[in-house]
Amino acid sequence: MQTITWNQQVVKRNNKSLVLQTIIEKEPVSRADIAQITGLNKATVSSLVNDILEENLIFESGPGESSGGRRPVLLHFNKTAGYAIGIDIGVNYVLSMLTDLKGNILIEKNQPIKNVAFDAVTDVVSEMIRSLILEMPKSSYGAVGIGIGVPGIVDKQGTVLFAPNLNWSNISLKQHIEEEFKLPVLIENEANAGAYGEKQLGAGQSFQDIIYVSAGIGIGAGIILNGELYQGKNGYSGELGHVIIQANGKKCSCGSQGCWEVYASENALLEMAPQQDATLESLVALAEQNDPEAIALFEKIGVSIGIGVNNIINAFNPEQVIIGNRLVVAKQWLEGPILETIQTHTLPFHQKEVQLQFSQLSVYSAALGVSAFVVENFIRDGITVL
Amino acid sequence: MQTITWNQQVVKRNNKSLVLQTIIEKEPVSRADIAQITGLNKATVSSLVNDILEENLIFESGPGESSGGRRPVLLHFNKTAGYAIGIDIGVNYVLSMLTDLKGNILIEKNQPIKNVAFDAVTDVVSEMIRSLILEMPKSSYGAVGIGIGVPGIVDKQGTVLFAPNLNWSNISLKQHIEEEFKLPVLIENEANAGAYGEKQLGAGQSFQDIIYVSAGIGIGAGIILNGELYQGKNGYSGELGHVIIQANGKKCSCGSQGCWEVYASENALLEMAPQQDATLESLVALAEQNDPEAIALFEKIGVSIGIGVNNIINAFNPEQVIIGNRLVVAKQWLEGPILETIQTHTLPFHQKEVQLQFSQLSVYSAALGVSAFVVENFIRDGITVL
DNA sequence: TAAGTTTGTATATTGACCAAACTAAGTTTA
DNA sequence: TAAACTTAGTTTGGTCAATATACAAACTTA
């Protein structure tokens, strides 16, 4: 039995976290506002705010507007008290960025890669991290951590168990990067990272139960339930791409048959295209010129995506389904068929009120997601330590 | 923002709950043991135990064995401090039971019903509750609540939105029963109730992430994540029976096509049977006499169940999948095909370590589940009130 | 200018857990 | 068989965080 005992330190830690979270979400805000919002006593808020001020995570600014009495001292989140590094390892690129503690991008680097071997990729990653740290502005806490999104199955220890498109298996990526930079490192599946990014900074900010569908070369999903990323027993939930939507259907690279991603991914699209050298971009270009064949192709993929989304809605009863990753560029032709498929298939009660949206952060979802994760850990641990 | 502030009362409530939970799980147990297990100070435990003693939820028994010093006073959970009523409304029966606070069945009543109209069913339910309360032994708290499992979609307010097999829609069942008996009432979907029953009292006791598949006339599922029932935004998650496993497949009563339950439920079985008047029981009887046709039929259903279970494992990465409800009687012929389907389809990493089991509580899963739910609420609220 | 309002701080109190001393009731050992 | 040791549980006094209350500071309004 994993038991947690409760004592005054826990109380203080949680209240402090609550106060800081309130400042982050509502800044600029006065002590009096915080007391009103949280229900904590004015004196308690005052004391906690002073603690956080000493930690440099917030700062005071000149007095705000009076509402008939003494003017309030406004509190702001010190979003440049430190910086987070977010990295998205794709199949043919590495995207890295430096963000402040609110997820604003300060520096962004994107490097195409051809050699996906582990050593080659980590060389690129390491070099990028080094240069980001060099270019980073001075701050109280410096780099607070490194987050990395990977297109594959990652366990809770940060080991990449299997990344078919990179040809990786059983790679202790977290340990490797941690040893080099002596900073907290966090590895996440690309879809989970994207889900978290959209939840914190993109389309999902006002929802608690979200399924993020990463529709790229394959299909993955990030599952956010009750506002938190659900990871499954071992951390590898969300392989929705390998849900069977056609029993005894087409062979899938995973060894199974009829998997969703065989019908609804970028790979599926390219395989169905009549042109030998079709790419997602070339098909989009054709569709933009009203090429009926290309449009029909996208619509077919849209229906297949819709089938899978139907399954998601019936299974999870989420508030929101977000479609992300590469296929978002074809939103224009996909959205209609997806919606129509849902309308004709999904249970009416489940359909009602569910939001279907496309990614708001486009190619940045995953990198911003891991970066936001890093920030969250930093803030939680910072507060814990005291 | 729904904020929770932390103070000493919260600390005490949680620690008290922790102590009581420890006693329930480990009884008989001494104060010293509890201090050791929970990490709380001996003095704190003593004080909390005395509080709980006053509430009559536990009692002391004669001293236990010495381990080289003073003999401990053993503490026991007072499982007869009150009783819970659990009811399972089926399509052609109402099963009701009185349980003690540990989920032991004291009285059990089962009544077949023909008329599924709301009024007729609630008359039966009310009559059963009345007689259970009359037969209930004397106790400190009496009947602590009523739980009802229903084969349909239930929202978080206890309204039965839609129960196709009962022909019910939009029925405020909770309100109705609450008004009659002035007791806390709780309504749950039958699959959710079954999942909770197996988790607390049956096959799932040592697991945290469990999917319970209720394979009966239709298919439903209860989803337990991180040890808690996941209900979705509106409380109607788990309609896994309407996940599409065959795009453009057979028509389903829900209006969609190719739903899992069209291929893997009791209804699917009976539809495929050559006999006009086949029932699940008659087919089991045939299979027991080694009738090859009947056995082949079950095996076919088994493969279809396996497809859906594959989808569950890939999507949720659970620790355990439990198959429950009526089809469990055919376990002997279903288990092989299900396992084989998983082995040939499910992602290897996800397959590893996942447990496939059949219900341990047989027909009692749902009724025991709601009853356990009632007990949990009683204990939590009792402790809250002080 | 005086009265009323709002913000934020200071002080004393409350109540929870905890450490340590203590009482109670055994076992072990010489 | 008595002294030494062990273990269980209670009592006492202390600490810490939140709170209620009073109050000072700063502003608005009539």
Automatic annotation (TrEMBL), chains A, B:
Signal peptide: none
Listed name of the protein: ROK family protein
Family: Belongs to the ROK (NagC/XylR) family.
Domain of life: Bacteria
Its job: Transcriptional repressor of xylose-utilizing enzymes.
InterPro entries for this protein: ATPase_NBD, ROK, WH-like_DNA-bd_sf, WH_DNA-bd_sf
UniProt entry keywords in alphabetical sequence: Carbohydrate metabolism, Xylose metabolism
CDD domains according to UniProt: ASKHA_ATPase_ROK_BsXylR-like
GO BP terms: D-xylose metabolic process
